[in-house]
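Researcher: Here's the sequence for the chain we discussed earlier.
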Amino acid sequence: MTETALLLTALLFGGAVLYSFGFAAFVFSALPADLAGSLLRRAFPHFYLFVLGASAAGGALAAFADSISAAVLAAIAGTTLVARQILMPAINSARDGGRTDRFRLFHSLSVMITLAHIAGAAVALVRLAALT
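Model: Thanks. This is the structure I predict for it:
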């Protein structure tokens, strides 16, 4: 089970890094800003489901090997659920309503949460790797 938790955590870490620093950056460099924003708005719910699934499954399996990794992954899953169900709609609403300051605030919070998820996944990944 530790190996599967490790693989799921590696998938979470790699997927979050690729999406955040690869895909999103590429989309904004390849498309006009309005199209890029629209595409990312459609992609983010799927990204959040990926993070939620990988972190929850990885955390459940990590619980058999390392309680700290399990807690970190559970925290990622919990905050992802909040980000997907509450923060993402607030970001979209602020953008649609032309409330630039609120959009910037909520988007910045979303970025900070994603960076925290990447850092948390890295911690869990290193801890689980040390057990194998």
